[in-house]
Amino acid sequence: MSATRLKRPVLIALGVLAVLASASYLVFNGRANELATELETPPWNDIRNDTLRERIQNRYLRATRGFPSIHALSELAQLYHANGYLAQAKQSYEILLERSEIAPKDLHRLARILSTYGMQDQAIQAYRQVLADSPQYTPARIHLGNALLKSRRNSEAEVEFRAAIETDSRSAHALLGLARLRIDRDQWKEARKILEAATQISNYRIGADLLATVYETLGENEEATRLRRDRDFGAYRDLHDPWVEELLGDCYDTFRLATAAGMASFREDFDKANELIGRAIELDPADPMLHFQSGGISQSAGEIASALDHYRKSVQLKPDFSDGWHYMYQIHRDAGNAIEANRILDDGFRACPDSPALLLEMSERMRQQSRIDQAIVFTQKAIDLRPHEAQAYLTLARLHLMTNRVDAAISAFENALRVEPGNSMALSTLTLNAINTRDQKAADRYFERLRKQPKMDPQSVDQLSAQYETQFGNRP
Amino acid sequence: MDFVACDSKLSQVFWVRQSAPGIFEETLIAEDMRAPVHIDPIDFDQDGDLDLLVACMSFIFPNNDPIGAIIALENQGNERFRRRVLLDQVARVSDVRAADLNGDGLLDLAVGQFGYDQGEIRWMKQTAPWQFESEILLSLSGAINVCIEDFNGDDTPDIAAIVSQQWEEIHLFENDGKGKFSSRVLWGSTNEDYASASMIACDLNQDNRPDLLFSNGDGFGPTPNPGPRPWHGVQWLENLGEGQFAYRRIGYLPGAYSPRAVDLDGDGDLDVAAVSSFNDWSRPQSESLVWFERLDSGAFRRHTLANTPIQLLALDAGDFTPAEGMEIVSGGFHAYPPYERLSRILLWTRGTSDR
Predict the structure, then answer these.
(1) What is the largest CA-CA distance in chain B?
(2) What are the pLDDT digits (tens) for A137-180?
(3) Do B188 and A259 lie within an 8 Å CB cutoff?
(4) What is the mean pLDDT of the segment spanning B317-343?
(5) What is the spatial distance between Cα B25 and Cα B5, in angstroms, rounded to a whole number?
(6) Do B231 and A117 make contact, defined as CB atoms within 8 angstroms?
(7) Which of the four pLDDT bands, split at 50, 70 and 90, describes residue A37?
(8) What is the pLDDT of residue A198?
(9) What is the C-alpha to C-alpha distance for residues A329 and B54, in angstroms, rounded to an integer?
(10) Kind and range of the H or E element at B307?
(11) Residues B209 and B153 sit within 8 Å (Cβ to Cβ)
(12) B225 and A452: CB-CB below 8 Å?
């Protein structure tokens, strides 16, 4: 066999490879060009962070020029999503979806964007596809349930909420969804049972608000009142969704990071909260509000030294930021460090003489020194600055009572109640005053309001009722 | 044209009266109005003058106490108004509108009660002059606005309501004409932080069917100061007839509040104006007043009308001055930093920066 004969098949093979490579290049380049046409140009004017700009540029070029990179397009979508460019993220995910090149996580992220905007038909389809690949991912299941619920596809929503509970029996959000379906069918007793389970699982973070309403609807007013009295309002926690939240690792927007840190702190995931707020501070170390928030997260986590460091940093960056001083002062005061607390209060008050909170602390200091008239001056200034808040009026009332200026105290309590009509301290004091002054009409009026305030301690109401009976001969 | 406004900080309702063309004077109508947040001017007692129905939250910041109220200011002529408390000691009231909902010739009320953890939508049947019976239509927190129109084309007034908090839904209560309502969700977001902010009924596409124009822009959350979210903006539910609605995004506007349908460019179609309350005010270019111009295609093109003053929460439109065309009135809400570029009530006139 000659060398020429040997070379010929090799040459032919090389030729075929070259043709294939050219064809592949043309096909892929064609796809890249299609992407370049389809994909909107990045919103360069809105991108302020240089690193983010560079990363977006890199992914955009890799996705649209030369050899196409689906991976780059996925990363581009995630960068957009992480940094709040939702229209661009949506478009990028949708291109991946059209080309059947989308990963379940990205599809879930697309579904979250769609369902945020209430485009539920598309979102439902996407969530279903995600769950076909990842049936154990409960957040997708619960979001699907909620999307179906908001589309009035209740029987399908029920299936999804039940499936979520099968995967995670402690899913309070899925129970909440089931309870809403029961309420929609007027099955209030079943809703109560489900919501009681949700509140137990979540330590009253999920479902308690609706449970109080359910108790009232069922005529179980004592239970409703107890719930409203014993639980802080505003306790609701959003559904934790790791596949979306992990995008924050690529976020360069300090407000978004701070918001996510706040959410994490609210669900008592302090490690995550610290990580996120720490990243925000790295990006903008001169922002006093980030340090202040970091201080709050540390304080909630019981890391007092770290909290003090961050509060101190916040006032170093912005000396007239009164909340930073006030929180530092409170920590030292509560720890019994009177000297340090007073030093901070002095420094803070010098820097922020118009801070209502610090004025009230100065008032309290004067009161402790029995300098009541001076305390009243500070309190009155706080009222002048914030006439629509009850706290300073209550302080003023107490100061007047200490010096037997009863009429002035009553007037201050009335002002507190005027600006905050549910204030239990003002309401109970004014009720007592009406009883003591034998003003039965006023006492009846106050009692009517008092009984409707769930935050009123029942023992106090009983005591006031007994005093009313002693004075007027009958129960109010 | 005059306008009325409420100041929730001072708990006042006042009348800004156009005493001569382009000259406005402010007259205090009522004090101690318990943090009023919305006024519906209507001849409620049908005696030929406008009365005012005022939604009172009693406390603007988060509070779950039953402290809300509806106070009517009955116009008695000669700039005198008689105060009537129509509803009291309920979840904080955020909106009230009047219409004859049961066809008995008396005006009734649709009421949105934000509350905080517990809230409600109710209608109040007027049984005798200024006397009412209440019926709860929905027990969810976060109701912001209620709208009354014949949304399903059956010639009876229905009620639509936008519900925020973690629910983030728009509900329709379809009326059988006798005051029996059936409820359904028209639209909803699954984002618990969607931040619904405002809603009005208007015929945005001028097809003689009332649409729903709404914004999401509430910036409060788990940070020391409020701020924008990337999904904030303005959108509408197009009424397709027979009770069907389609979601249409109009545009992005961080901190968006109070969208109004108004023909600002005088081309015969309805544009949308909106304000921003919770934008990133550290950036001078952040917008506080925006015009979404309606194009022939039906799409909207966004124009920045103003970057200052900041933190605008309320907006309305009308032909307030002798100049041709419509003008805008805005109201400021300055409850958090930065305490700068402040405003209270502003009249925005056309074609100039005068206000």
Answers:
(1) 54
(2) 999 999 999 999 999 999 999 999 999 999 999 999 999 999 99
(3) no
(4) 93
(5) 13
(6) yes
(7) confident
(8) 97
(9) 42
(10) none
(11) yes
(12) no
How confident is the model over A92-103, as a mean pLDDT?
A: 95
Task: Look up tokens 């001055």; give the residue.
Answer: B321
pLDDT at residue B32, as a whole number:
93
User: Which pLDDT does position A243 carry in this prediction?
Assistant: 98
Residue bearing tokens 């690529």: A250
> Which has the closest alpha carbon to A255: B215, B257, B224, B338?
B224
Tell me which residues of chain B, numbers 76 to 105, contact chain A at a CB-CB cutoff of 8 Å. 89
Return d(Cα A468, Cα A475) in angstroms, integer: 6
> Is the CB of A234 less than 8 angstroms away from the CB of B116?
yes
Question: Has residue A2 got a pLDDT over 50?
Answer: no
Cα gap B343→B338, rounded to integer Å: 13
Residue whose token pair is 């007259």: B27
Whether B215 contacts B198, CB under 8 Å: yes
Chain A neighbors of B34, CB-CB under 8 A: 421
Interface of A with B in 202-221 (CB under 8 A): 208-210, 212-213, 216-217
Q: Is the peptide bond before B338 cis (omega within 30 degrees of 0)?
A: yes
Q: What is the mean pLDDT of chain B?
A: 96
Mean pLDDT of B280-309: 96
ipTM value of the model?
Answer: 0.95
**What's the alpha-carbon Rg for chain B, to the nearest Å?**
19
Interchain contact, B224 vs A449, CB within 8 Å: no
Residue A244's SS3 state is: helix
Surface-to-core class of residue B144, CB atoms within 10 Å of its CB (0-12 exposed, 13-18 middle, 19+ buried)? buried
Q: Which residue of B has its CA nearest to A234?
A: B117
Residue B193 in this model has a pLDDT that exceeds 80: yes
Q: What tokens were used for A366? A: 């004067």
| Spatial separation of the C-alpha atoms in residues B293 and B271, rounded to whole Å | 5
Is this prediction's pTM over 0.95? no
Cβ atoms within 10 A of the Cβ of B22, count? Answer: 12
Say how far apart CA A293 and CA A315 lie, in whole Å. Answer: 12
Chain A contact for B116, CB < 8 A? Answer: yes
Residues 6+ apart with CB under 8 A from A68: A28, A29, A31, A32, A35
Share of chain B above pLDDT 70, in %: 99
Burial A144-174 (b: 16+ CB within 10 A, else e): bbbbbbbbebeebbbebbebbbeebeebbbb
Which tens digit of pLDDT belongs to each residue from B299-329? 999 999 999 999 999 999 999 988 889 999 9
Task: Calculate mean pLDDT across residues A12-40.
Answer: 58
Element at A225 (helix H, strand E): helix A221-230
Q: Which residues of B touch A208 (CB under 8 A)?
A: 117
**What is chain A's alpha carbon radius of gyration, rounded to the nearest angstrom?**
32
Pairing mode of beta strands B143-149, B131-138? unpaired
Is any Cβ of chain A less than 8 angstroms from the Cβ of B336? Answer: no
- Amino acid sitting at position A27: V
Q: Most A CBs within 10 Å: which of B90, B114, B190, as the mutation test of the A interface? A: B190
Locate the chain A residue with the closest alpha carbon to B192.
Answer: A238
